[in-house]
Amino acid sequence: MTHDPLDAAALAKFVDHTLLKPEATRADVEALVAEAAELGTYSICISPSFLPVEVPAGLEVATVCGFPSGKHHSDVKAAEAARSVADGATEVDMVIDVGAAKEGRFADVQADIAAVRAAVPAPTVLKVIIESAALSDHEIVEVCRAAAAAGADFVKTSTGFHPAGGATVHAVRIMADTVGGRLGVKASGGIRTSADALAMIAAGATRLGLSGTAAVLAGLEADAGY
Length: 226
Description:
The chain is α/β, with parallel strands linked by helices. The chain has helices spanning 8-12, 26-39, 74-86, 98-102, 106-119, 137-149, 169-179, 194-203, 213-224, and strands at 15-19, 43-46, 60-65, 91-95, 125-129, 154-156, 184-188, 207-210. It has one domain (8-224): Alpha-Beta Barrel (TIM Barrel). The chain is 43% helix and 16% strand. The protein has an 8-stranded parallel barrel, surrounded by 6 helices. Helix 6 links the parallel strand 5 (125-129) and strand 6. Helix 3 packs parallel to helix 5 (106-119), helix 5 runs parallel beside helix 6 and helix 6 (137-149) crosses helix 7 (169-179). The protein is globular, with a radius of gyration of 16 Å. The protein starts with 7 loop residues before the first helix and ends with a helix.
């Protein structure tokens, strides 16, 4: 897959500008919103307890569900997602039960995703965090197939909180090959440079989860000689 060269403004439109630290405050969220508006990112991604939040027109609001462990009952995930949408979220990033995937219980993974999808139907965007660094290549493929079958809109690499690590080009490529353009692919976790970001997009990522967005975009501008 080839892409025209991206400038900072174009790259920003791939970005969910993210703040999910447990110690985050409302002032931090206000600063995140202001920075997202200044940088021109696609969305902000914040913890559900910060919803509702005021954002300027054109900035989407994403939140997380079953985060970060995924070890929540499906009905609890569904209720959390529904509450978040009622509170103004337009996108929900849910975490699968990674252990179920490790045990090969992909039908259970699909059912978990489907429960959340039923609670937040379209036009809400549902992204499925698979924690790719904790999975084998085979498990990544099967979980992506489960997400597609359950009606998800995106598969996403990582929470950014798992000790196994975050996004890799290898995982993004497998995910993109598996969903074949039917779903989006979000690369998230440990993407800290413009080179990292561009490598993920080249591998098939259609969205990026970044907490250090300003530094990534500044790096792209520096590389371009702006």
